[in-house]
Structure formats: structure tokens, C-alpha cells
Amino acid sequence: SQSILTFHTVAPECKFGQKNVYGVAKNELIHMICQVNAEPEVLSFKWQLNNSFETVDIHSFVSNGTTSIASYIPRSSSDYGNVHCWGENIVGRQKQPCIYTLLPTSPPETINNCRVRNQSLDSVYVVCVPGYDGGLKQSFILEVYEFNSNQLYSNLTSVYPEFWIQNLPTNTTFMLNVYAINAKGRSLPFSLKTTTSTAL
């Protein structure tokens, strides 16, 4: 008897586990990757931006097999939202699109407020209120300047907007500059002045 080979054909479906959130600044180029499962391979792809303002086709993309990569530059606040990607093969068009969220990113905003919570002869504890993180994970930098000479005395980095500055000279005034920083840059500084205690 002769054996008969059968092929299981499937219309494209979105591949599980791929990156689905992209952050990008205005006027910055972003590459979004759409991956699907399909048998046989995909013949064509379609990309589209959907938001509360409009629905726009994205024409700048390259495709190879079951992967398509779109290139996109948001020019204004209306150029963000959900990006949909469909694949199509000889079986048919993908029923549910792959959906990617495109978010605006920027350097973080200036810290809202900083206060000296504790002060001693040789240490200062500073607590700050962070501003908007720019859509990205932010960390914090503290620069300690000796007030009269304006020389940098210490430089600290923290994942939280809190700093314990130690080994300071007594009865000395310092200018503290606190920055927020993320992958897009750093904020303007929040500055405050403090003086260590005087030894009795």
C-alpha cells in the first residue's frame, strides 16, 4: 500500500511570549517585531496604529517568513496607542491581530520636593518626592557640594529617592542637588541647602 502524506495547514496566529509594550520618545525611530505561528509560512503582513484619534496604516515594514518588523517614528502625542499586526497565508488572514502598546517616553521630571529628615554632626538623611518617571524605570542621583567652595564632596546613586550622607565635616554648609535619571536622560536638579551640626 502507498503511504499518503498529509500537511496540517493553519492560518497565522499571534506567537505567545513576545514583547508587547514599546516605549519611544517623539521623533525617535522604533522597530516593532511581530511574530506569528502559521503553516505554511505567511505571504503578507499588515500593520496598523489604532488610538482614540485615528486609525492609520503603517507601510514601513519588512517581513521574512513568520516575522515582520515595522519601523515607526511618532511625531506628536496622537501618534501613540495600540499597534495591530496581521499575517496572511494561503489558508487565510489572521483572525485576531497581534497587539502592541506604544507609549511615549522622555527624561524624568524634576523631583517635586526634598527635605532633610535627620541631621547630625557628620551625617544628613534626605527624603525626596519623585516626579513623573518619563514612562521608564528611574533612579536618583545626589551631588553634595561644599557651599563656600562649590567643590563636589560626594556623589550618591539610589533606586529610591532617599539618601543617607555620611562622614561629613561638622558645622559645614552643603548644597545638595538631586536628579532623577532614566534611559532617556536626567531631570533638572532639585536643590536644597543644609548644614551639619556643631560639636559641643
TrEMBL record:
<dbReference type="InterPro" id="IPR036116">
    <property type="entry name" value="FN3_sf"/>
</dbReference>
<dbReference type="InterPro" id="IPR036179">
    <property type="entry name" value="Ig-like_dom_sf"/>
</dbReference>
<protein>
    <submittedName>
        <fullName>Nephrin-like protein</fullName>
    </submittedName>
</protein>
<dbReference type="InterPro" id="IPR013783">
    <property type="entry name" value="Ig-like_fold"/>
</dbReference>
<dbReference type="InterPro" id="IPR007110">
    <property type="entry name" value="Ig-like_dom"/>
</dbReference>
<dbReference type="InterPro" id="IPR003961">
    <property type="entry name" value="FN3_dom"/>
</dbReference>
<feature type="domain" description="Ig-like">
    <location>
        <begin position="12"/>
        <end position="85"/>
    </location>
</feature>
